[in-house]
Design a protein that fits this description.
The protein has 444 residues and is an alpha+beta fold. The chain has a domain of 122 residues. Helices cover 55% and strands 10% of the residues. The chain has 18 helices and eleven strands. The strands form three sheets. Strands 1, 2, 3, 4 and 6 form a five-stranded antiparallel beta sheet that branches. A four-stranded mixed beta sheet has the order 5-10-9-7, with helices on one face. A two-stranded antiparallel sheet has the order 8-11. Strand 2 and strand 3 form a beta hairpin. The longest helix has 36 residues. The protein is globular. The relative contact order is 0.09.
């Protein structure tokens, strides 16, 4: 027991030392780029990007080696286009949240600690080979003692300690660089911490699945094509999530008309993002199962996000301002979203004049529906350095990311579909002024 504890402490120490070395490299790289920008041993753009990519590649190698929270941190960091250069974020996008499974005895030990008894006192069966293994936990097929067939998601033992080390190192790095960054990096850290801790709380994930299922069920026509696994709360704890086992195949392997499946799956995610403001953040094919009845089952709700009504309304106003070239609405929407303080309104009005893209002016409704929101936000990054109080509101990064992933899903899996036909009604409805008591449906 003592040797095992010492081994764990040593592993955490090695992890911390590797991360400290990365932070030191980041500081040296920043100093080198600052000197270059001031004319001391100047670097060409290609040389600068090569150095940034090399640093990001070192992080990817460390994350792949140590796994756990580092993979998640890298994936979330790849979305922070307002913080990191594109040369780094592109490299971080290589991180994959699929890892070798942990030994079965570690999984049963975790289950028994959570249940307080031997696993076979609560479960009639537990399949040793996992269905899936990711950076924070893995899923096994199981059967309850009353016969219910389950998908049991189990958080890895020790993962919380390693994530705590990862977050401590992330906090140190962000604190060191906060004085040179445009956004408030302390706020970025708080969002990172909330995201990682949230994914390790399976009670939260279960509640998210139920809330999203309830929201989607309000559209009967849409819900008839969907499923969300039922949560079995009597066998669920903060570290073990017991879900209904859904027999089916991945959407990429289904023999049912692919375009119909992709269309209904897309409508489900568009409903979450544009109507509800509470959404599943990861609409990739691995999270979409086609059951035997041909319905789309959405799984894995650990990465979820909520845009508060005020932020959602401010995002709507900001996008409408960009289309209408209304600089007053543009500036006031940033304040309403919590992105800037009122003191920066004059600068925001000036930025509006620079940021308005002529290609967004006088668009038809169909063209508005096809706007690339992620590209729109990225274009503004270069101007934001002038805003002293700038910070991205919680949820906005994940919202734009989910839209981009969904768009890619449609293009990749159903090239015969026109994304405008799917996105159009939701985007136009989102940009329109709110109308009380409006009945909405996804049925074509």
């Amino acid at each position: 027991m003592r040797k095992a504890a010492e081994s764990r402490v040593l592993a955490l120490a090695v992890r911390a030392s590797v991360l400290l070395a990365l932070i030191a490299r980041a500081a040296l790289l920043y100093a080198r780029l600052r000197l270059s920008s001031r004319g001391v041993r100047p670097l060409a753009a290609e040389q600068r990007d090569a150095k940034l990519r090399a640093f990001a590649a070192r992080f990817v190698a460390a994350a792949t080696r140590f796994r756990g929270g580092l993979i998640k941190l890298g994936q979330v960091a790849s979305l922070r286009l307002e913080v990191l250069p594109e040369a780094i974020t592109r490299e971080l996008e290589r991180l994959q949240d699929r890892v070798a499974p942990h030994p079965f005895d570690e999984i049963t030990a975790r289950i028994e600690r959570e249940y307080g008894v031997a696993w076979n006192e609560r479960l009639a069966e537990l399949v040793s080979l996992p269905i899936a293994a990711a950076s924070l936990g893995q899923v096994h097929e199981a059967r309850a003692r009353d016969g219910r067939r389950l998908a049991l998601k189990v958080l890895y033992p020790g993962i919380e300690r390693s994530v705590a080390v990862d977050l401590a190192m992330a906090r140190l790095a962000l604190w060191l660089f906060d004085w040179v960054a445009v956004p408030d990096l302390n706020e970025v850290y708080r969002q990172l911490r909330a995201s990682l801790r949230g994914e390790m709380d399976y009670l939260r994930e279960g509640r998210a699945a139920e809330e999203i299922a309830g929201n989607l069920a309000r559209d009967a026509g849409l819900w008839s094509h969907l499923r969300v696994p039922q949560i079995h709360w009597d066998l669920t704890t903060r570290r073990v999530l017991a879900m209904e086992f859904i027999e089916g195949v991945k959407i990429t392997d289904s023999r049912i008309a692919r375009e119909d499946l992709v269309a209904w799956a897309s409508r489900a995610f568009l409903h979450m993002m544009f109507r509800d403001g509470f959404f599943h953040c990861d609409p990739h094919p691995g999270n979409l199962i086609v059951d035997r009845a041909g319905r789309i089952a959405i799984i894995d709700f650990g990465m979820n996000e909520r845009l508060e009504p005020g932020v959602l309304a401010a995002v709507r106003d900001h996008l409408r301002a960009s289309v209408l070239r209304d600089r007053e609405l543009f500036a006031s929407s940033l304040v309403a979203a919590g992105a800037i303080d009122a003191r920066d309104l004059p600068v925001a009005r000036e930025i509006a004049e620079l940021a308005f893209d002529p290609s967004l002016y006088n668009l038809t409704p169909q063209e508005v529906a096809g706007l690339d929101f992620t590209r729109h936000f990225v274009r503004l990054r270069g101007q934001m350095i002038r805003l002293r109080s700038f910070r991205l509101p919680p949820g906005v990064v994940m919202w734009s990311r989910a839209i981009s992933i969904l768009y890619g899903l449609v293009v990749e899996l159903a090239p015969g579909l026109r994304p405008l036909d799917l996105f159009g009604p939701y985007v136009m409805e989102f940009l329109a002024p709110p109308q009380p008591n409006r009945v909405r449906s996804a049925a074509p």
